[in-house]
Amino acid sequence: MLNTSAHSYKQTMKNALKYGLLIGVLSGLWILLMHSLNVYHEAKGGPFNIHWMEYFSVIIPFTGLYLGIKNYRNNINGGKLEFFEGLIEGFKILLVGFVLYAAASTFYVQFANSQVLTMDYYQRIGGAGLVGILFNIVISLLLMNRQHNL
């Protein structure tokens, strides 16, 4: 059951903004770290030739989504969470995070003056979006406490 009061709506949006900013800013910093370590220059040759350090980037959206959905359940929704409530809150968080991530990626592509930035890099951005959606589903399932409403 969704709580639709104006106060709760503001809290929900603040929650999504807070944890979306966490994901977006950390992802942007991760891009800069990977650039400074020359990771993108070493991982050439297609979407499956990924540098081992890039796999650690999945920790960022997982952590942000987990903390954001858990905060929504515990502090905004009175300790209750149905699957679709978690999914909707997670999508809001992902939307904010992905906008910032896309902005950081665009900045990187435009100003990094790199020769490896081809369609391969944009495929990685799309892959990050898919990973975020999958994490959202898994975390919503893990944190929900009313299974009969799945």
Task: Describe the protein's architecture and organization.
The protein is mainly α and 150 residues long. Helix content is 71%, strand content 0%. Helix 1 (6-36) runs antiparallel to helix 3 and helix 4 runs antiparallel to helix 5. The two termini are 12 Å apart.
Indicate the topology:
Elements: H1 6-36, H2 39-42, H3 59-76, H4 83-111, H5 119-143
Helix pairs in contact: 1-3, 1-4, 3-4, 3-5, 4-5
Please give a quick description of this structure:
This protein is mainly alpha-helical.
Main sheet characteristics:
none
Principal-axes geometry comes out as elongated
N- and C-termini, Cα separation: 12 Å
**Low-confidence blocks of residues:** none
Q: Into how many domains do the coordinates divide? A: 1
Reading the helices and strands in chain order gives HHHHH
Mean pLDDT: 81
Strand portion:
under 5%
Number of strands: 0
How many DSSP H or I helices?
A: 5
What proportion of the residues is helical, as a percent range?
over 70%
Assembly status: single chain
Structural class of the helices, strands and pairings? Answer: mainly alpha
The Rg value, from CA coordinates, equals 17 Å
